[in-house]
Amino acid sequence: MATDELRLSRFQQRVLDLPEAINLGILGGRGGGKSYTLALLALRYAVQYGDRARMLYVRRSYAGLRDFEMVTREVFGLAFGTDAKYNAHEHLWRLPGGAIFELAQLESHAELGKFQGRSMGLVMVDEAGQYPDPALIDLLRANMRGPKDLPLRIVLCANPGHVGQGWLAKRIALRGTPWKPYRDERGDLWCYCPSTLADNDFIDQTEYRAQLEVACQTDPELLKAWLDGDFTAARGAFFSDVIDERRNLVEPWSAIPRVWETWLGHDFGSAAPSVTYILARSPGESVDGRWYPRDSVVLVDELATNRRDSLTQGLGWTVAVLGEEIRNMCKRWKVRPEGAADDACFAQTGHGAGSLADEFRRAGVYFYPAQKRDRVSGWQLMKRMLADAGKPDVPGLYVSRRCSYWWQTLPTLARDERRVEDLDTTGPDHGADACRYGLLRVSRKVKKAEIGGA
After folding, report:
1. Please, what are the domains in the chain?
2. Can you tell me the distance from the alpha carbon of 68 to that of 62, in angstroms, rounded to the nearest whole number?
3. Is the pLDDT of residue 212 over 50?
4. What integer best gives the mean pLDDT of the chain?
5. Which of 151, 294, 307, 175 is nearest to 231 (CA)?
6. Which of 117, 73, 402, 405 is nearest to 255 (CA)?
7. Within a 10 A sphere around the Cβ of 111, how many other Cβ atoms?
8. Which end of the chain has fewer CB atoms within 10 angstroms, the N or the C?
9. In the predicted model, what is the mean pLDDT of residues 59-66?
């Protein structure tokens, strides 16, 4: 193996020095040399374990595979010359000694079938932050098996600012001290390996930084995220510049003041979570010693039907079950079960069943369409009210600690990279949508006819 031309940065050498029994979370900023590090890890695994080495690299898109393919051509070409064979149609490397390295796309649960029954010793997930939750990656680990003396390892690689930043921070960046191995809740060994542009000596750092600055010229927080590689902060997230627990967080109330106006904000889901909020509007008064200017809105309570282990998967509740739970929540707070929902709730479902709103009406919950505005206008309203919270003379948006789904998701929701004024809809945005619908409600009193004859 002709490795004399392979050069490693200090960061890459530090990663390769970690024992192979340790799973890796290679998280950091742009330009840190993470993809090259993945190719080096595959190279070493192939050399050490020969024909027993079965390796898999996955990305969410084929475009990403093409980028990594070029990296592997460089690394394996330097190491093996023409003895390394690549089948571009199958995205498969056959390396000297019998090692197999497959590059594959994995975007949805439907694609897991192509890996069924196959054994992998080393699994690498690049740009893991593009996955809104870890469920798909966890299922992929079912393919990790091999002889007792063959180490099994999963490597997650990601930049901050994507939809999965929240779960990666929770599992890795906030769980472990950098470069110090720790055990997760399953007892598996992990190590958090952070990197930044400053760790990569093999690129023109000044020029690359300038390119990042141009790309983020309207988003300084995203630039900081890409430069610092900080997963522990919400930098680069859509609402990161307006959410502050010191201003927006409200400790749970025991009751809603009688003179406050109340209504619901609802985002429907079955396979995906359904989220419903009780919103209350201040007439301009204090509650529990805190002043809420006139027209301020408080999210008082929440019903979120996400699975315990997932922010993006729902419990599959029917409208009848969901309606009963919404009524129970409203009964506890002594408010009417009526409010604003997405226009999709009012589309006819066919077969004479009417719309979802009709089904809710039969279940005793009355929804009317949220005020007509485009998504961006709704987000701007939310941002303005979040930023204005705590000011003595303008209405703000306040959120109770009871609204745990809101606090788990909103601070780290990513922006759409192709439309930076909008959210990335692949993330857990159901709480954000329900909040937006509630804020966009028509302020005038809704006629009974508009809510199905309530």
Report:
1. 10-228 (3.40.50.300), 245-451 (3.30.420.280)
2. 10
3. yes
4. 87
5. 175
6. 402
7. 14
8. N
9. 84
Give how far the C-alpha of residue 255 lies from the chain's centroid of Cα atoms, to the nearest Å: 33
C-alpha distances (whole Å) from 293 to each of 297, 326, 439 are 9, 28, 16
Asked whether the whole model's pTM tops 0.90, one would answer: no
β pairing state of 100-105 and 92-94: antiparallel
Q: Distances from the Cα of 271 to the Cαs of 136, 312, 320, 360, 363, in angstroms?
A: 15, 9, 15, 18, 20
In tens, the pLDDT along 124-160 reads 999 998 888 888 898 888 878 777 788 999 999 998 8
Note the pLDDT tens digit of each residue in 376-424.
889 999 999 999 999 999 999 999 999 999 998 998 888 887 777 888 8
Q: Is the pLDDT of residue 86 over 90?
A: yes
Give the percent of the chain with pLDDT over 70.
92
Q: Residues 338, 328: contact at Cβ < 8 Å?
A: no
CA distance 174 to 171: 7
User: How far apart are alpha carbons 434 and 453 in whole angstroms?
Assistant: 23
pLDDT digits (tens, 9 = 90+) for 176-192: 789 999 998 888 999 99
Residue 317 has a pLDDT of: 94
**75 and 93 Cβ atoms separated by less than 8 Å:** no
Enumerate the β-bridge partners of residue 367: 339
Task: Check the CA dihedral 108-111-117-120 and report its sign.
Answer: negative
Report how far residue 414's alpha carbon sits from residue 163's, in angstroms, rounded to the nearest whole number: 5
Q: What is the pLDDT of residues 303-320, one digit of tens each?
A: 999 988 788 889 999 999
User: Token pair of 172, please?
Assistant: 């890795």
The pairing of strands 85-87 and 92-94 is antiparallel
Given a cut of 90, whether residue 224 has pLDDT beyond it is: no
